[in-house]
């Protein structure tokens, strides 16, 4: 059941950071950026912060998207969560 706009804690449109943690892989960051662009066509790789884990097994990406609706964010979270190299999305 969708949350009514007046009950949302997020004001749309707004910049919304999403943290994506996944297994370190050559194309991980590129594939996440491509996925984000499908949901936010104005997104560009300059809006990505990358941090490798201490032992280099994982990569944490913070992507800041332009959120235009709850539906857009929900669809993006589902797409990111189902990516084969993603461990979790916050």
Automatic annotation (TrEMBL):
It comes from the Bacteria. InterPro entries: UPF0250_YbeD-like, YbeD-like_sf. Pfam families: DUF493. Coiled coil: none annotated. Gene3D superfamilies: 3.30.70.260. HAMAP family: UPF0250. Belongs to the UPF0250 family. This is UPF0250 protein PQR62_22800. The lineage of its organism: Bacteria, Pseudomonadati, Pseudomonadota, Betaproteobacteria, Burkholderiales.
